[in-house]
Amino acid sequence: MPTQHTVRSFDKELNCLSKKIAEMGTHAVHMVERSIIAIVHDDKKLAKQVIADDIFLDEAERKIDEEAILIIARRQPMAVDLREIIGAIRISVDLERIGDMGKNIAKRTAILSDVRQADPFYHGLEAFAALALKQLNEVLDAYACCSLGRIDAVREHDDEIDSMYTSLFRELLTYMLEDPCNITVCTHLLFCAKNIERIGDHATNIAETVHYVITGIYPALERPKDDQTYRLGAGK
Amino acid sequence: MSLLSESHMKPLTRNIGLKRRYRAEKRFRAYGLIAICTGIFFLGALLWSIFSHGYSAFWQTSITLPVRLDAAVIDPQNRRDKNPQVLITANYPILIRNALSEKLSIAPDDHVGLRQVNRMFSSGVRVQLRKMVFDNPQLIGTTQTVTVLAAADIDSAVKGQINLAVPETKRKVSDRQVEWIHELAADGSLYKAFNTGLFTFAASSRPETSGLGAALIGSIYMILIVLALSLPIGVAAAIYLEEYARKNRFTDLIEININNLAAVPSIVFGLLGLAIFINFFGLPRSASLVGGLVLALMTLPTIIITTRSALRAVPSSIRSAALGLGASKIQMLFQHVLPLAAPGILTGTIISLARALGETAPLLLIGMVAFVANYPRTPMDPATALPVQIYMWASEAERAFVERTSGAIIVLLMFLAVMNIAAVLLRRRFEQP
Amino acid sequence: MDSKLKIKMRGLDVKVFYGGKGALHGITLDILENKVIALIGPSGCGKSTFLRCLNRMNDTIEGALVTGRILLDEEDIYDPSVDVVELRARVGMVFQKPNPFPKSIYENVAYGPRIHGLAKSRTELDEIVEQSLIKAGLFNEVKDRLHDVGTSLSGGQQQRLCIARAIAVSPEVILMDEPCSALDPIATAKIEELIDDLRRNYTIAIVTHSMQQAARVSQFTAMFHLGNLVEVGATDTIFTSPQEQRTQDYITGRFG
Known about the structure:
The structure holds three protein chains of three kinds. By secondary structure, chain B is mainly alpha-helical. Chain B has helices at 2-9, 18-54, 71-74, 85-89, 92-103, 111-118, 125-135, 152-158, 175-186, 197-200, 213-244, 249-262, 266-280, 288-313, 316-324, 329-357, 361-365, 386-394, 399-431; strands spanning 59-68, 143-149, 190-194. Chain B has two domains: 59-195, no CATH class; 213-431, MetI-like (MetI-like fold, Orthogonal Bundle), CATH 1.10.3720.10. Chain B contains 19 helices and three strands. A three-stranded antiparallel β-sheet of chain B has the order 2-1-3. In chain B, helix 5 (92-103) packs across helix 6 (111-118), helix 13 packs across helix 14 and helix 15 (316-324) packs antiparallel against helix 16. Chain C is α/β, with parallel strands linked by helices. In chain C, 36% of the residues lie in helices and 26% in strands. Chain C contains ten helices and ten strands. The two termini of chain C are 31 Å apart.
């Protein structure tokens, strides 16, 4: 913000809130990253760590809620401050969900290690996760520096995630058609892909929230939000 | 435990000069108390001196005795039917002297004794009996019970104001007269009665027959004139200046002048009255009209100033409220501002009236320091005023006049007290909405 | 703004000078019928000055000069043919400090109708007084003591009495100059509730220092700063996403 509040402790409280969001973001990104590593390299120990780490995000989310409510009660924020606080609440929810996705992926590591397949099976997922995480990092950066330009860039990249998800879906479908023995591993990988796709959605949500925090209006709804895989059948 | 030890380390009280500050306050209170006590002492001394000298003026020695209105004395040639002048020129004091000497059984050839008897009663009896006989000539030849005033010296003796230890030749009352006083007082014909004459008599050279009558009427005339002139003019001027006049150099000038006028010594107003009302307009000297005009001029600035401050003290929120409802300016002024300012205006007016009532100096210049023996019938007739009467009596030498001076001061103070109490009461009444 | 809303008052390039010094620098602002418009801004921004222009209360200030036009139902209220007394009967005012006359409650309310001759008989006047007090939400509290002095009421009741007094002359517009700044929160809430009720029959312009109050009671908000109109718009927009940086800074408490 260009100028400070007359009441400086208000500034401190807001800064504290956004710092917590940033922390949560870093943590969520880290969790997803590690869950992918665990699943790709079959690292059960790392997966356990990731699952245990989720508690941090749950707690952080609750703390942000509490703090936001306190600020609203104490300061009766208006305009950008109000949006910032509401934004923080919503972003924290999204980040917590992203953490859950990471945890969900990590949980599958144990089962997948029993039916371990060749590396190429995992390459698609790894690339897909990298793209989603790049999106998420972009959004978090945009939030940290209140940059509208970067937000728009994120929203444009959203289509890439959708198309990559569709192609990954096809790929895994193909593996399953080739050999029914692949079905178990591919189904799990599909769920992982779905989770990563959800992470991308949450990143987009965050982007929209940040857009609202900065401008006061929600971005237009022209973006095709759904994943397109519901049209895909086994034969196509 | 740690809290306790911490508080031990810190001194409980800091030296911030409390003792010195309290001492200063005590000292200051003592100064105030001393000042007030001094004021009360002087006020008490003043009041004590006035009342101790003056209270006896409200009592007057009178002698009641049967008087034979002897035709041989009043009208020896029996010409009163043709010439009523006889009744006016008759020697009435002889009748009283005879009646009194008879009562005191003094031989008709005791000339010294008769002269002393003559000095027992006021020579005002001449006027008193003349009025009685002239109003009702049938009384001639009858015996009437008449109450006459004792002479001033006898009055003083009765009141114990004459030191009887002084040798007889050096005092105004002889031993025989003192004996007579005792004799008459013993059978109840000489007694002290409330002195109505103090309020009804006009000026006289004899203390016992002089009173404040003319001065009271003159003062009342003047107060009424002052009230009738300065209240409407003063309030109107104040309203205009406060509510309507634009603030510019001219109104500033007027304001400064009004403030200065309020501080002008009153005698200057007397000079003004002399020059304008008497010399220029040719109004009669000594008239209460002129006195009233001069006093009105004198009180006007005070009334304007008090009225303006009373108007200014009306909260502006009341004005806004009235205007905001669509009241016109005059409705706002007369329905809201003036009623709220009324207590202040009235107090100011009554206090300046009281000041006018006590004013002497300007009246001296316009000739109100006159010997007025008759009641003024109109404000154009010569009159005096209460403070002027006090001034005149104060310059008389006789003991009885000293007493009357203080008596008159008491009357004046009573008037002022009544006016101030009226101011307080009116204020209370108006302040209760 | 919505086209079916009627413009009740309109200020066109209103400038005010106090003794030659500009206090308002050309305000153009519409006030819509049966809406509450809140005028906000820091102290000395001219919001009260503008409000006082709307019923020409500035006339009473010596050296005040108003230029531009203010229309009430398309009629310029500064036109020489408009009588200021009549104008003030149409545009009532409630002040910052409750200022009942030091008279009875009844007399306070009856004063306006009486000077304007709105009641033909005593019963009619009684009716007006009762209705006004009912509308101001005060009747039940004072019906047994209508002849007590108005200043004996509590602060909030006094302010509602002032509102009753203002609506007794059936104005079309009610101007309120920080009506709650001297009141406790409960009394404030009652006044706010009252404002919301009154909106059905009157057009209301309210100056307030409390952003929350402006947000609560008004449909439109105009932000003033240094004698200029910074921004005007729907209250919902102003308080969530104002367009102007100065508005933003002011309502979020960042004013330097």
